[in-house]
Model the fold of this input.
Amino acid sequence: MGTSGPSTSRVVRGLPPGQHRRRDFPRFGMPQLAPPAVPDRPILTVAGAVEDDLHLPLTELDRTIPRIERVADLHCVATWTATGLKWSGVSFRQFWEQVVEPRCKPAGAVAIIARGADGGRAVLDLRDALADDVMLADRLDGEPLDALHGAPLRLVSPGQYGYKNIKHLRTIEVCDTFPRLGYKGMEHPRARVDREERHPRFAGPLLRLPYRATVPLIVWLNRRPSRAPGS
Ligand SMILES: Nc1nc2c(c(=O)[nH]1)N[C@H]1C(S)=C(S)[C@@H](COP(=O)(O)O)O[C@H]1N2
Ligand SMILES: [Mo]
Done:
């Protein structure tokens, strides 16, 4: 048995395999994609394999479904994790069941494509999108989402790598066949963090070091003044 008594033992919630904690929460992602300006009346569009498209003003998002708050970690595929982020918004599953299904009548949906106003895009298997903890979030740590982290709305899917957590969410495209994956061939269809599904072809552990090596450059590129909101 270990020698540590109650005075030295403490409960530390483990991080998923290959992740390490970052104390700050940098803007991260495709450096060529600047944060887009937020329109006066932002709208979320649901389109694709549906009978009726939906153009929902974000002010109506929490009118039909309850606002929830969840604390979650964000796990970037490049191995850093930001912990204890307090998101506020609505449950994606409630949005799907109480808004999308009745109003759009999706037929045979197997996946969605989340599209950000900056051109960012991710494919989510519907099974992952409908997990308990997936949210459409418009607030972070008690404040409206800022341009750095996805204003006015972002997808939050803590069980999947950061690259599925699309910022500046503008369109949800419903797909009745599994769509083409993106991120230059680096997007895994599921990207589940607990299974280390970092990449569609290479085993997750092999990519820890090479991905981690890119982090300082990507953080720096995302900080450039030309990345100011809307530029
Ligand atoms: N629209 C959009 N969403 C995006 C990205 C992006 O470039 N554009 N990058 C993704 C990646 S790789 C990560 S790790 C997270 C980072 O979120 P943050 O910038 O709030 O830290 O956003 C994800 N969502
Ligand atoms: Mo990422």
